[in-house]
Design goal:
heterodimer, A: 238 residues, alpha/beta, Rossmann fold, 8-stranded mixed sheet, B: 54 residues, alpha+beta, 3-stranded antiparallel sheet, 1 helix, 13% helix
Chain lengths: 238, 54
């Protein structure tokens, strides 16, 4: 490990080389390498997470470039997972990065995520999010959920049975909106917060946003943290 | 707002013509509640839309 690379985080009280070594042994599964995934992948790679598994089945499109900050015009039409791998390998050659050009579904979720210490939900639809959620509930794997749209977003740290699962919070039927409006910087805000939640969990530093949901309204720059609790009738976790 | 006795958050969403099939978080008097919560006099309800994109 090149300590100079991590010098500024090693300065944090309670971090030190042991924490940095701990991070270097962790695996994070990042589901989605889009608006949320790009800052998550960047900051986790920069922090020295041992292994990043980047999962996305899409290719880079010109309309992605207002928010998906890992990519440039040079990567247009490349698979996002592969382009993200190339980018973060240049940022931090000390870490192991795996590109998974797959769409997460019920048939492959176990194989894709197995062995990961934490899952970061950077997806853009609730159908796939619920697949991640089911995996997280079944295996007890922590899941950092965020969503972003227009100029607002939400964040919570899911770790059942200590916390509600994502399904506890959702209506029975969801109609997806596509394409979703978004200001690029909003994805940067929420993705940065997701990376923080993952880093805190993996280092044991700070407190995760468990049993609470942060709701951010960027239009008026309001933050609210509201309590959330398990649905005793939840079909997934109860 | 005035609502009929026994009215739920879902009933209020219908009255306000808000969609029921988009994810939302509700708090009543700063406690998280589901859409089937029966509203009481002087309840203070907040409705937070959950963003769908990533």
């Amino acid at each position: 490990m090149n300590a100079s690379r991590y010098e500024r985080q090693l300065l944090l009280e309670g971090w030190g080389e042991s924490t940095q070594n701990k991070l270097s042994q962790k695996t994070v599964f990042v589901a989605g390498a889009g608006g949320l995934g790009a800052p998550v992948i960047h900051y986790l790679a920069a922090a020295g997470i041992g292994k990043l598994r980047i999962c996305d089945s899409d290719r880079v499109e010109i309309s992605n470039l207002n928010r998906q900050v890992l990519y440039t015009e040079n990567e247009l039409d490349e698979p996002k997972a592969r382009a993200a791998l190339k980018r973060v390998s240049k940022l931090n050659a000390e870490i192991d990065v795996e590109a998974l050009e797959e769409r997460v579904d019920a048939s492959n979720v176990n194989e894709l995520i197995a062995g990961s210490d934490i899952v970061v939900d950077c997806l853009d639809n609730y159908a796939s999010r619920l697949v991640l959620n089911q995996f997280a509930v079944n295996t007890g794997t922590p899941l950092v959920h965020a969503g972003v749209q227009a100029m607002y977003g939400q964040l919570t740290f899911i770790h059942t049975p200590i916390t509600p699962c994502l399904r506890c919070l959702l209506p029975d039927k969801i109609t997806e909106l596509s394409p979703k409006p978004i200001v690029g910087a909003a994805a940067g805000v929420m993705g940065g917060l997701q990376a923080m939640e993952a880093i805190k969990y993996l280092t044991g530093m700070g407190t995760n946003l468990a049993n609470e949901m942060l709701l951010w309204d960027g239009a008026d720059m309001n933050w609210q943290v509201v309590p959330i609790h398990r649905d005793t009738d939840c079909p997934v976790c109860s | 707002m005035d609502m009929a006795d026994g009215a739920t958050i879902d009933d209020l969403l219908a009255l306000l013509k808000l969609p029921v099939d988009t994810p939302k978080v509700f708090t009543v008097n700063d406690t998280n509640e589901k859409a089937d919560y029966v509203l009481n006099d002087n309840d203070f309800l907040k409705i937070f839309p959950m963003a769908m994109g990533g």
